[in-house]
Design brief:
- This protein is an alpha/beta fold.
- It has two domains: 1-88, Ribonuclease Z/Hydroxyacylglutathione hydrolase-like (Metallo-beta-lactamase, Chain A); 100-194, Metallo-beta-lactamase, Chain A (4-Layer Sandwich).
- It contains five helices and eleven strands; from the N terminus they run βββαβααββββββαβα.
- The strands form two sheets. The chain has a six-stranded mixed sheet, covered by helices on one side. A five-stranded mixed sheet has the order 7-8-9-10-11.
- Helix 4 runs antiparallel to helix 5.
- It starts with a strand and ends with a helix.
């Protein structure tokens, strides 16, 4: 089961997805809200096994320290030089989220350490801030942003997923549960125009 614990939060935050199963994992921690209480309501004393980060912009990692302290959970991400990252996830390595195996795809352009996670068996993509609903795509006007690199990263994701994709969980806004591959295609076109 996948739940967005930042749903309904009005503060500036990213989504924070709790993926329950054999390995209970939080994908991104969001920022500026009491995530620890939300987690305790969902998982109780069992806690979580790890935090997996799509990237280390402040809105995605603001709650990292509170989660680490409350649940003694390691934080995994692409760049172990970042203070929010305890353990590196290498490009094309496999990460267990819940009951599924997900391939980590290094997808820079929005930020150099950006990762997407694709579970083929689950038909699920955690897209972070690479692509969003209705063809939206990650900002490239922040430090480390690069539009050409972002387009290549979107194309990389397009080469891995196909129209059997059933769910796309994004860094901001609602998850895409109807024809998510079409939204990736729209983002690829829009990023080229823009």
């Amino acid at each position: 089961m996948i739940q967005n614990l930042a749903g309904g939060v009005s503060a500036f935050t990213s989504n924070a997805f709790l993926v329950e199963g054999d390995r209970t994992v939080l994908v991104d921690t969001g920022a500026n809200f009491d995530l620890v209480s939300e987690l305790r309501d969902r998982v109780g004393d069992d806690g979580i096994d790890a935090v997996v980060l799509t990237h280390t912009h402040p809105d995605h990692v603001g709650n990292v320290d509170a989660v680490r302290e409350a649940f003694d959970a390691e934080t995994w991400g692409f760049d172990p030089e970042q203070p929010a990252v305890d353990r590196a996830i290498e490009d094309e390595s496999t990460v267990r989220l819940g009951d599924g195996e997900y391939v980590a795809l290094h997808t820079p352009g929005h930020k150099n350490d950006h990762l997407c996670f694709y579970g083929e068996d689950a038909g699920t993509l955690f897209a972070g801030d690479l692509v969003f609903q209705n063809g939206g795509f990650g900002r490239t006007d922040l430090p480390e942003g690069d539009r050409e690199l972002l387009v290549r990263s979107i194309d990389r994701v397009r080469s891995v997923v196909d129209d059997s994709l059933a769910a796309m969980h994004v860094g901001h806004g609602p998850s895409v549960l109807e024809r998510p591959y079409d939204h990736v295609e729209m983002a690829a076109r829009a990023a080229r125009l823009g």
